[in-house]
Design goal:
Length: about 300
């Protein structure tokens, strides 16, 4: 899903999907069926004479009907467009590329590195003073020129060693920064390009996965990569198993449970306990079902 950004509003359950693992399905559907960005329905041309009773009745009826219709028919095209404007595309944001000189400069922002630079500078100054003195002595005594040359080399050993260590440290830091950028690209390659989504009461296969928004109902089948973090609504087969090795590092697949069967004890539960939640980029290894996108 879209990466966290100060300008992008959070989904109803915040920046992580762990919280939805302990929310009852009815509450989750009610929350995601009514988003602040959704188009407002037209007002009733023939209002009830009692506004208070009408508001209570319409609130309860619209809440229950919208929750049930979300699971049956999915979002409308207008709702999906409005939510995409609010939450952004379902994709990892690519950070702006940093210049090589900036990466190198960042390696010298550490306080310890700056202290070592200062030590190398002071050592170089002292070595230069010693070099001048050795040169003066060598000029006064020709027989001492060979010994003076050796002293000159030894005088600069310490600052050169410190500078060499700092240069190697900067090179390793730049390499690690480049590797981190490569890891982000690898994560983006794990995200599927297409998904099957329920919109306007019809299943649409081949939908661009970046267009998914919170509240979309997606279909999951064997071999599919989960297009976004989602809550399992129902199973079409007896079981649904997902390979979450890219998240947990474990080789064993995790069996997912629909509805409230797989509720986690609390929002702080580890990933292995979120049996009702499937995570974007993981692979469906067996079974099929439908899931509600939450992030």
């Amino acid at each position: 899903a879209a990466a966290a950004d100060p300008a992008t509003p959070a989904t109803p359950y915040g920046p992580t999907s762990a919280a939805v693992g302990c929310v009852p399905t009815a509450d989750l559907l009610a929350t995601l069926s009514a988003d602040p960005s959704d188009p407002k329905p037209d007002p009733d041309p023939d209002p009830d004479p009692d506004p208070e009773s009408q508001a209570q009745a319409s609130s309860s009826s619209s809440s229950s009907s919208s929750s049930s219709s979300l699971a049956r028919t999915g979002l409308t095209t207008a709702q999906a467009l409005a939510r995409r404007e609010r939450y952004g595309p379902n994709a990892l944001d690519r950070p702006p590329a940093r210049a090589l000189w900036r990466l190198v400069a960042e390696q010298f922002e550490d306080r310890l590195v700056q202290i070592l630079l200062a030590v190398a500078a002071l050592s170089g100054i002292f070595s230069y003073v010693e070099l001048r003195q050795a040169a003066a002595e060598a000029a006064a005594s020709a027989s001492a020129s060979a010994a003076a040359a050796g002293e000159m080399l030894r005088a600069f050993v310490e600052p050169l060693v410190i500078l060499t260590i700092l240069v190697l440290n900067a090179a390793v830091g730049v390499w690690q920064s480049r590797s981190a950028e490569g890891s982000l690209e690898a994560l983006k390659r794990l995200q599927p390009e297409l998904a099957e989504v329920l919109r306007d009461g019809q299943w649409r296969d081949g939908t661009d996965a970046t267009e998914l928004v919170p509240g979309d109902v997606v279909s999951l089948r064997v071999g599919d990569r989960v297009p976004a973090d989602a809550r399992v609504l129902r199973l079409r087969t007896s079981a649904l198993s997902v390979d979450e090795g890219s998240l947990t590092g474990e080789s064993a697949t995790v069996q997912k449970l629909p509805g409230d069967e797989g509720l986690a004890p609390d929002a702080g539960s580890p990933l292995q306990d979120l049996r009702a939640v499937v995570f974007g980029g993981t692979m469906v290894t067996s079974g099929s079902g439908t899931a509600l996108v939450v992030r």
